[in-house]
Amino acid sequence: MCIRDSIWGIPIPGVLLVIALLVGGVALGRSVYGRYVYAIGGGDEASRLTGLRTRSIRTLAYVITGALAALAGCVIASQLGEGQGDIGLNVELGVITIVIVGGNAVSGGEGAMWRTATGIGILAVLGNAFDHLQVSTFWQEVIEGLIIIAALAIDSYGKRRAQR
Is 72 in contact with 13 (CB distance < 8 Å)? Predict the structure, then answer.
């Protein structure tokens, strides 16, 4: 089976994305490890003082992230038919935008995979609209930056309002 194939009409990379989101959502939302990850994201020192082994939990999170990045690299290499070391450079802004637009906290300690999936959906629809309207890449990046600023402002406003 080639990565360019599909299952029930859904491309295999899409199936892998859904599986990763579901497994990640269950792991973060329903497991002790997920609660530990959120605790460390909310306050590293406080988590360490409560007895959590923050170094090993953080290391495992980095290992899982690295494994998923390797899987993404394999998918991209399979789609292109070759491997290039510089593919995926400067993708960080897009990832941060997805996370923020989805409503996850930039400061850490809270969030959910379904929020990230929502951010992916919003930006995919927006990207398709830009392509159909033939918006230049420059303006796409400007609008993406404005979306990040708006999402951060809304998040900040919501947090300040919740503290009152």
Answer: no
Q: Which residue has the higher pLDDT, 24 or 88?
A: 24
- On the 0-12 / 13-18 / 19+ scale of CB atoms within 10 A, 85 is exposed
Cα(74)–Cα(78) distance, integer angstroms: 6
Both tokens assigned to 159? 């947090």
Beta bridge partners of 5: none
49 phi-psi bin (left φ>0, alpha ψ -120 to 50, beta other) = alpha
Distance CA 79, CA 76 (A): 5
How far apart are alpha carbons 147 and 114 in whole angstroms?
19
> In the predicted model, is pLDDT for residue 2 greater than 60?
no
Q: Is 37 exposed, middle or buried (0-12, 13-18, 19+ CB in 10 A)?
A: buried
Reported pTM:
0.76
Q: How far apart are CA 120 and CA 116, in angstroms?
A: 6
**What type of residue is 40?**
I
In angstroms, the Cα distances linking 86 to 62, 63, 66, 136, 140 are 21, 21, 16, 23, 22
